[in-house]
Design goal:
This protein has 310 residues and is of the alpha/beta class. It is built from eleven helices and 14 strands. Helix 1 (6-14) packs antiparallel against helix 4 and helix 2 packs across helix 4 (89-102).
C-alpha cells in the first residue's frame, strides 16, 4: 500500500501538477471503499453549493473555488461530467477525488453520463490519460472508480439532485435505492435515464430523446414526481445553458451548468447554485477563468472533435 498524504496531493493538484500513477491507483482504491458505503440516494443538509458539468476545464474549476469558497469552508455537491472535452480531465477528476477523500462529508460526487468507459473512450479522457501517462492504467483506475459514484442526492428532504433527469420506471426514491449501480452505465433502464434524460418545456409526459439514451420529460412528470416524494424542486445539470442556468416548470426544476465557454469556444456563461439553510437558491454566475487564454492554442485540436449536444 502506498502511503498517502492527501494534503500534499491537494497542494500539487491546486498547482495543476500531475500525481504519480501509483498514487492515483491508491486514491481510486480508497475512494471506491468510501463510495461503496454510500446509498444511491444521499441525504444532505444546506447550506451547499451545487456544481454542474465541468468537463475537464480545470481552470474553471479553480474559478469555482475562488468565487464559491474552497473546501472545507464551503460544502459542495458536484452533479457529474467531470471529464471529457476539456484539456485537463485528469487534473480535474484527481482534484475532486482527493477532496472527496479528504472531506467526505463536505463533498458529494454524483455520477454523470460521461463517468463511463464507453463515453470516455470517445470524448477525450482515455486519449488524455494515454498522452499524459503513456498507458491506459490511469483511465482504468478512474473508470473503475466511476462505477461506485452515487446516482442522486436530496437536500433537506426537499430538493432532488441528479445529473440528467427522471425515468418512466422511477416514481419514488425507494426505486432508486434498489438499483445496482456498481457497474458500467447501461444503454437503457432506470440508471441510464437518471444520467441521460432532459426536461422539455414543450412536453407534458415522457418522450423519446434525440440523444439516443434516456428520455425527455415534461411538466406533468415533474409535478407527479415531486408530489409522490413530497419534495419541492428538481436540480440537475447535463445541458449547456448559454446564461449558465435555466429554470423551468414554474420554478420546479433548475439546470445548473458550470463549464463557461464550453469546449473553449461556445461563449456561454456558467453558474454554481448556492442553496441556503431556508431553501433559498442563488445562481452565482461566472465567466471563463483568465488562465484559459494562455492555453487557448492547445484547444485548437478539439475543434473537430465529435459532438452530440452542442
Amino acid at each position: 500500500m502506498v502511503a498517502l498524504d492527501l494534503d500534499a496531493c491537494l497542494e500539487r493538484l491546486y498547482k495543476k501538477q500531475l500525481l504519480a500513477e501509483c498514487v492515483l491507483r491508491e486514491i481510486c482504491e480508497r475512494t471506491k471503499e468510501l463510495l461503496a458505503r454510500e446509498s444511491n440516494v444521499i441525504h444532505i443538509s444546506a447550506p451547499v453549493t451545487v456544481v454542474g458539468d465541468i468537463h475537464g476545464q480545470y481552470y474553471d474549476l479553480i474559478e469555482i473555488f475562488r468565487i464559491g469558497g474552497y473546501c472545507p469552508n464551503t460544502n459542495y455537491l458536484f452533479l457529474g461530467d467531470y471529464v471529457d472535452r476539456g484539456l485537463y480531465s485528469v487534473e480535474t477528476i484527481a482534484l475532486l477525488t482527493c477532496l472527496k477523500l479528504r472531506y467526505p462529508d463536505r463533498v458529494q460526487l454524483v455520477r454523470g453520463n460521461h463517468e463511463s468507459r464507453a463515453v470516455t473512450q470517445t470524448y477525450g479522457f482515455y486519449t488524455e490519460c494515454m498522452r499524459k501517462y503513456g498507458s491506459s492504467q490511469v483511465w482504468q483506475y478512474f473508470t473503475d472508480m466511476f462505477d461506485y459514484l452515487t446516482l442522486s442526492v436530496v437536500i433537506d428532504d426537499s430538493i432532488f439532485c441528479v445529473h440528467g433527469g427522471l425515468s418512466p420506471t422511477i416514481h419514488v426514491l425507494d426505486q432508486i435505492k434498489v438499483i445496482d449501480r456498481f457497474k458500467e452505465i447501461p444503454h437503457e433502464g432506470a440508471m441510464a435515464d437518471l444520467v441521460w434524460s432532459d426536461p422539455d418545456p414543450e412536453k407534458e409526459e415522457f418522450s423519446i430523446s434525440a440523444r439516443g439514451a434516456g428520455y425527455t420529460f415534461g411538466s406533468s412528470v415533474v409535478d407527479r414526481f415531486l408530489h409522490m416524494n413530497n419534495m419541492s424542486h428538481i436540480l440537475r445539470a447535463h445541458q449547456l445553458c448559454n446564461a449558465g442556468y435555466q429554470v423551468l416548470f414554474d420554478d420546479k426544476l433548475s439546470t445548473v451548468w458550470s463549464a463557461p465557454n464550453y469546449c473553449y469556444r461556445c461563449g456561454n456563461l456558467a453558474s454554481i447554485l448556492e442553496v441556503g439553510i431556508y431553501g433559498e437558491r442563488f445562481f452565482n454566475i461566472f465567466d471563463a477563468a483568465p488562465e484559459n487564454e494562455r492555453n487557448s492554442q492547445q484547444s485548437n485540436k478539439y475543434e473537430n472533435s465529435i459532438e452530440y449536444f452542442l
